[in-house]
Amino acid sequence: MINKNKIFLSNLAVIKSILVKKNWFKSIFFLRYIVIIFILSFLFYLVSPKFFNQEKNLKYISSALVNSYNIELVDFTKINYEFLPSPRLIIKKPKINFNNGVAKSETGELIINLNFSEIYNIPSISINKIHLKKINILVPINKGKKFISYSNSLKKKIFFTETSLSVLKNNKAILDFNELKFHNKKKQELVLEALLFNERIYIKF
Q1: Which run of H or E residues covers position 98?
Q2: Comparing C-alpha atoms, which of 200, 126, 138 is closest to residue 164?
Q3: Residues 126, 132, 133, CA angle at the centre, nearest 5°?
Q4: Cα-to-chain-centroid distance, residue 165
Q5: Euclidean distance between CA atoms 48 and 87, whole angstroms
Q6: pLDDT tens sequence across 12-71
Q7: Exposure pattern of 49-87 as b/e (b: 16+ CB <10 Å)?
Q8: Distance (Å, rounded) from C-alpha 138 to C-alpha 68?
C-alpha cells in the first residue's frame, strides 16, 4: 500500500512538473505576442504620418520657427515627414529670412526634429533643434556682426552642414565660405568650420 502511495505521489509530482513547465511555455509565448504587438503598434505610430499632408500645418510650423529662432519661412517646395533616424519634418528648398533680414538663404533642406508627443500634434509644436543642410546663406557685409550676434543669442540648437556662406557687398559676393559646418551645440559658444581660399579654417565665437 505504501509503495502504491509513493508511486501515486511520484506520478502526481511529475504531472505537476509537466503542468508548471507547460504554463511557463504558455507565458513565454504570451509575452512574445505582447512584445510583437507593441513593436508593430509603435512602428505604425511612427510610420503613419508619412501619409499625412504636412503642408496643412504650415502656419504652425512657421509660427514655431519665428518664436524659437526668429526665422521666417518665405517659400519652399515640399514638406516631408521621416521617422528615421528619428521623427522629423524636412522642408525642401526653403527660402529663409534670418532675424528680420540680417541674412537670407535658399535651396537645400530645413530639418526640424520632433518629439514623439508632437508627431500627431503639430499645432502644439515647440521646436528645440533644427538642421540646415546644403543651403546657401547670403549675408550683406554691413550685417555680418548682426548675424554673428543673432546666432550667438539663440537658446535653441541650430546646425548648418554642407553649407556655403557668401558675404555680399552691393549684392556681389566678396567672400565665400564653402563646406561650412556651424553649430551652437554648447551654450554661449558658436563653432564654425569651413573652407576659405582652399584652406580649412576653424573658429570659435
Answers
A1: strand 95-98
A2: 138
A3: 145
A4: 23
A5: 11
A6: 454 455 544 555 556 666 677 777 888 888 888 888 888 889 999 999 999 999 999 999
A7: beeeebeebeeebeebbeebbebbbeebeebebebeeeb
A8: 21
C-alpha cell at 104: 537670407
Is this model's pTM higher than 0.90 or not? no
Grid cell, residue 30, equals: 504570451
Within its chain, how far is the Cα of 85 from the centroid?
Answer: 8
Residues 125, 60 contacting (CB under 8 angstroms): yes
Report yes or no: 181 and 137 within 8 Å, Cβ to Cβ.
no
| CA-angle at 84, arms to 78 and 85, nearest 5° | 120
